[in-house]
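Project outcomes to date are best conveyed with an example. Our students and postdoctoral researchers have been running inverse folding experiments weekly, and each run begins with a structure described purely in tokens. The record below, which covers 401 residues, was selected by the lab manager from last quarter's runs and is presented without edits.
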């Protein structure tokens, strides 16, 4: 499909936050660590000697590490370990080489030696967040989830903005069936590292399997944008489409229902001068119902119309004055730039691939223009401007407004 299937699949009981893994929890953790390992390779090659002494007389340590990484990627862990040990002899104070050695042991499934290598790094105070991540994962693979959690928490004290550490902690909590704590951890990871995709992925899946689908819709869309080309992204694309289809229901020829949130509690501030309004029912569902008026079915074409009308109604009716957020602002920009239709079809394509392909046959140039625009204009969020449930839910409305 381009820009878009999940590298593993997790089904969620739709009303009880219960998770059933298709793969074993051990395999899931291993996949995650391998993926994290692959992601850091290019960055590692650029930064390898940033924290180490210069070697004007020889490039040999760098060459050895490059060779070791290639061997690791090929699955030749013993040769990779031997090569990294040779590099350490030449550059014994480089923490990145020590980390690569720990990773090679981990991938070889020699978790005790991976723990030894990470312990050495932590003792020398040269550890970075991935060291704690790898150490915690090693404990997890050895069946010691308690020590894994303590390791992630220790890492977060030193690196409070580490998205991967929140991710790993949340996954272990899921394995322990502490789903509410896991969700809170993923959301904390979103707040601490808004550009790290995986916390959005898990938060979206949990919310889309609950009665508060509204947050899964927002987090899922953001994940899709942050990680557009993965199998997980395609998985979320289908989940978003399916949730629209299941929660917008046509009850008769003249009526419909929209249900993305059960939170309809309106609270009062301590002084009693303002109302605390729930975003899901007051802003999202109301605007969505208004935008779906006149449609009689849910497919890609109708969802494009609904989502376009949603943006228009959200700003026309000034709902943004109390519930604005970077995602809806970005959608408005897409509308103004005439890119919203292509974006909507791309976003939800996995829910109805036949209809998407039919649209694409007639609109390839339109999609190409959107992709070019996206590549040039980047993400809708940043470190300082991001979407989070705590920023939107229970917005205060001062008396007299």
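After processing, the design step wrote out the following sequence:
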């Amino acid at each position: 499909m381009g820009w878009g299937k999940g590298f593993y699949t997790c089904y969620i009981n739709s009303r009880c936050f219960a998770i059933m893994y298709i793969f074993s929890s051990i395999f899931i953790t291993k996949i995650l660590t391998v993926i994290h390992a692959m992601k850091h390779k290019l960055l590692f090659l650029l930064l390898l000697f940033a924290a180490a002494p210069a070697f004007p007389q020889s490039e040999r340590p760098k060459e050895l590490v490059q060779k070791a990484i290639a061997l690791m990627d090929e699955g030749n862990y013993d040769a990779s370990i031997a090569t990294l040990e040779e590099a350490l002899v030449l550059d014994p104070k480089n923490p990145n080489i020590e980390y690569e050695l720990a990773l090679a042991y981990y991938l070889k499934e020699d978790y005790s030696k991976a723990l030894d290598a990470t312990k050495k790094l932590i003792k020398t105070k040269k550890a970075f967040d991935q060291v704690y991540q790898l150490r915690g994962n090693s404990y997890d693979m050895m069946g010691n989830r308690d020590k894994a959690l303590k390791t992630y928490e220790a890492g977060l004290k030193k690196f409070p903005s580490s998205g991967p550490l929140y991710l790993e902690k949340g996954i272990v909590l899921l394995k322990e069936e502490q789903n509410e704590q896991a969700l809170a951890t993923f959301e904390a990871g979103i707040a601490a590292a808004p550009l790290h995709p995986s916390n959005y992925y898990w938060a979206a899946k949990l919310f889309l399997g609950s009665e508060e689908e509204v947050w899964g819709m927002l987090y899922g869309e953001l994940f899709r944008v942050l990680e557009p080309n993965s199998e997980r992204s395609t998985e979320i694309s289908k989940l978003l489409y399916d949730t629209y289809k299941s929660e917008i229901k046509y009850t008769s020829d003249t009526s419909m229902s929209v249900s993305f949130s059960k939170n309809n509690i309106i609270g009062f501030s301590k002084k009693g001068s303002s109302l605390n309004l729930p975003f899901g029912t007051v802003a999202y569902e109301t605007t969505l119902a208004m935008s779906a008026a006149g449609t009689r079915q849910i497919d890609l074409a109708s969802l494009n119309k609904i989502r376009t009308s949603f943006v228009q109604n959200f700003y026309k009716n000034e709902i943004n004055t109390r519930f604005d957020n970077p995602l809806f602002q970005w959608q408005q920009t897409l509308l103004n730039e005439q890119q919203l239709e292509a974006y909507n079809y791309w976003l939800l394509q996995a829910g109805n691939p036949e209809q998407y392909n039919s649209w694409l046959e007639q609109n390839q140039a339109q999609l190409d223009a959107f992709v070019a625009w996206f590549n040039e204009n980047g993400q809708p969020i940043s470190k300082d401007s991001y979407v989070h449930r705590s920023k939107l839910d229970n917005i205060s409305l001062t008396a007299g407004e």
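The mean pLDDT is 86. The radius of gyration is 24 Å. The training component of this project remains on track.
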